[in-house]
Amino acid sequence: MRSLSAAIALIAAPVQAGLRFPCSTLTVQRLDPVVEPGHNPSAHVHHIVGGNAFNASMTGDVAERATCTTCQMAEDFSNYWTATLYFKHPTNGSYHRVPVVPVQPLLGGSNGASGGLTVYYTQFDLSKDNLKQQPIKSFQPGFRMTVGSPTTTSTPHVGLRYQCLTGTSRGAEMPDFPTKPCSGGIFTTQHFPSCWDGVNLDSPDHQSHMYNTIRSDGFTNAPACPSTHPVRVPQVTFETTWDTSKFNSLWPSGAPNPFVWSFEGSNGPGTHADYMFGWKGDALQKAMDKSECFYDGCGSIKKQAMADANRCTVKDMVGEQVEGWLPALPGMA
Ligand SMILES: *[C@@H]1O[C@H](CO)[C@@H](O)[C@H](O)[C@H]1NC(C)=O
Ligand SMILES: *[C@@H]1O[C@H](CO)[C@@H](O)[C@H](O)[C@H]1NC(C)=O
Questions:
Q1: Residues 78 and 51: beta-carbon distance below 8 Å
Q2: pLDDT per residue of the chain (333 residues) written in tens, 0 to 9
Q3: What 3 state SS string does 27-88 have?
Q4: Rounded distance from Cα 251 to ligand 2 centre (Å)
Q5: What is the CA 87 to chain-centroid distance, rounded?
Q6: Predicted model pTM
Q7: Is the dihedral of CA 210, 275, 236, 304 positive or negative?
Q8: Does 53 sit in the ligand 1 pocket, CB within 6 Å?
Q9: Checking DSSP bridges between strand 259-261 and strand 85-88, what pairing results, if any?
């Protein structure tokens, strides 16, 4: 709700900050070059957007190898992914993948994206960039990170949230799945940490090279980075709309939430997300250095039509069924 009211406030307020753009779905398959590099298949199914250098294993400068991207920003060959949502039939136990639909942001529409997710890179919060106080350093080639964990059994930290969409309302931000059907689908948000140790492109747990200063929900401003992680990098956020509506009639009144992540989980909300940096040259640095620009208008940043972005694909490298009614989640049998 807070991000919603922040966005409404911006219609009136001229001061703006950050990049926001759609990326269409690139592929849905069981690969994870950050957590399980070289494994084909990886443990669970992912919904992946971004550049076509996506592979079971990814090293070095991704932007050098990619030739297209599903993101609106034509020089962004990064990959962004999360687990995929499945509906687990309450009586017969079969699974069906929940389709992804473009996020309909309050400003700007989805620009013809196909599925996918919306990506934000903010410098401070949605209304100011604070660049004079704290400059932003772009991620470097080879950089990767994750946020959250599939094995979480407790409440995830702020910044990892679920919302129940009804009509034009996104509803309150919640730490776990909605407990009642949502007519407009389920909306998930993942805010990544924005303080970097300045040295490591990755770490064994893919998280300790980063530090999370987020203390409240929404696009709230970022406090100073600690001395252990002194470098402020862009704050990356994903928003995804899972179109759960077609399964609502199969959710008996009073029954528990029937939606599960592709790893099904261990009674915890388990929301997590992965990021693989892949902007070309200094394109992201230039966009982040531009003061008080907003959404897709940061400097001379190069954009492409989503119709072109939608033509970018990668091949199915796993070769298993992830669609239709399935007796078990892929990899979980
Ligand atoms: C993916 O990795 C395989 C094995 O290293 C390689 O043969 C293939 O060309 C790679 N594909 C892309 C799109 O980079
Ligand atoms: C479970 O129910 C769905 C929807 O009614 C159906 O399509 C699917 O085949 C069923 N699965 C089994 C194992 O009966």
A1: yes
A2: 344 444 444 444 445 788 999 999 999 999 999 999 999 999 999 999 999 999 999 999 999 999 999 999 999 999 999 999 999 999 999 999 999 999 875 445 688 999 999 999 999 888 888 888 889 999 999 999 999 887 766 666 788 999 999 987 889 999 999 999 999 999 999 999 999 999 999 999 999 999 998 878 878 777 889 999 999 999 999 999 999 999 999 999 999 999 999 998 655 667 899 999 999 999 999 999 988 787 767 777 899 999 999 999 999 999 999 999 999 999 997
A3: EEECCCCCCCCCCCCCCCCEEEEEECCCCCCCCCCHHHHCCCECECECCECCEEEEECEEEE
A4: 13
A5: 20
A6: 0.93
A7: positive
A8: yes
A9: antiparallel
State the sign of the Cα–Cα–Cα–Cα dihedral 286, 211, 262, 154.
negative
CA separation for the pair 97, 323 (Å, rounded): 6
Which residue of 55, 65, 276 sits with most ligand 1 atoms within 8 Å of its CB, as the best mutation to test the pocket?
Answer: 55
Rounded CA separation 221/201 (Å): 25
- Structure tokens belonging to residue 15: 């001061």
CA 225 to CA 233: how far, in whole Å? 10
Distance between CA atoms of 117 and 101, rounded to whole angstroms?
Answer: 8
Residue 225 tokens, joined: 């980075």
CA pair distance 151, 154, nearest whole angstrom: 9
Phi, psi of 275 (to 5 degrees): -135, 130
Q: Is 55 in the pocket of ligand 1 (CB under 6 A)?
A: yes
Q: Which amino acid is at 26?
A: L
Beta carbon of 62 within 6 Å of any ligand 1 atom: no
Name residue 71's beta-bridge partners.
Answer: 23
Tokens of residue 259, six digits: 């939606």
Encoding tokens for residue 1?
């709700």
The backbone region for 327, taken as left when phi is positive above 0, alpha when psi lies in -120 to 50, beta otherwise, is alpha
Q: Cα dihedral sign for 331, 118, 129, 287?
A: positive
Distance from CA of residue 99 to its chain's centroid?
A: 15
